[in-house]
Amino acid sequence: MMQSIVSPKTSASIFSELANVIKTWPIWFLMGNQDIKLRYKRSIIGPFWISLTLAAWIAGISILYSQILKQPFLDYLVFLSCGLLAWNLISAVIGEGSVSVIDNAGHLRSAPIPISIFAARVIYRNIVVFLHNILVVVCVLIYAKVKLTLALLFLPVGLAMTCMILFFVISVTGPLCARFRDLQQIISNMMQVSFFLTPIIWQPGQMGGRTLITGANPFYHLIELIRAPLMGHLPAKQTLVAASLMLLGSLVVALIVWQYSRKRIIFWL
After folding, report:
1. In 182-221, which positions are buried (b, 16+ CB within 10 angstroms) versus exposed (e)?
2. Would you state the pLDDT for residue 246?
3. Can you tell me the mean pLDDT for 161-165?
């Protein structure tokens, strides 16, 4: 199987990495499924443990912070659950993606495997977890009697756009974390701080007229691509513009890193 993903020679085109992701989808699909099976081996409910953890977080935080922030409980419950659903996907992908190259050092030493395959592996297995977690949010929406709107049709688009941005981001951080080992710790600490700086527990309207902390926060826009459709409305125009710019920017940077690291990655492991 390993021989099927080894390129006969290094392609001159930097877009070959994108072609490799599509061409080798059975590889990262099987690897992602294997990751989930191994993580929950001998577990009775498997990945649903993550869903139970999410449910516990939602219940605990919503009961406490709806009182602290003086928010209507059901409205806050819906806002929090949709935000945590999106954040868990984003933070897990970035965290796991930053060590995706390091964790697969053995494969890379044995064969010239395109590093984009490992980024796709991370994205796929976290989408599977996301689909488990969304069941918790569906229960919350039913409990809160949230009316479904046509905006829900945007959810697959928002999810796809978020995953594409994250794919290019970890295609950058994966090789760079292999080259600069301290970078992984920096990313980990940054994600912890970003959780509190992003409207997940608190709502954007509570900042009054100070909108810079949300407008300039990329995580806010990524979350809104998923949270807004679930809450019954389309993402704001500002979010769509910001997400488009992030997609384009991350693509350009990823292509540069792919080209730079293609022949050097083996010396960074």
Report:
1. eebeebeeebeebeeebbbbbbbeeeeeeeeebeebbbbb
2. 95
3. 95
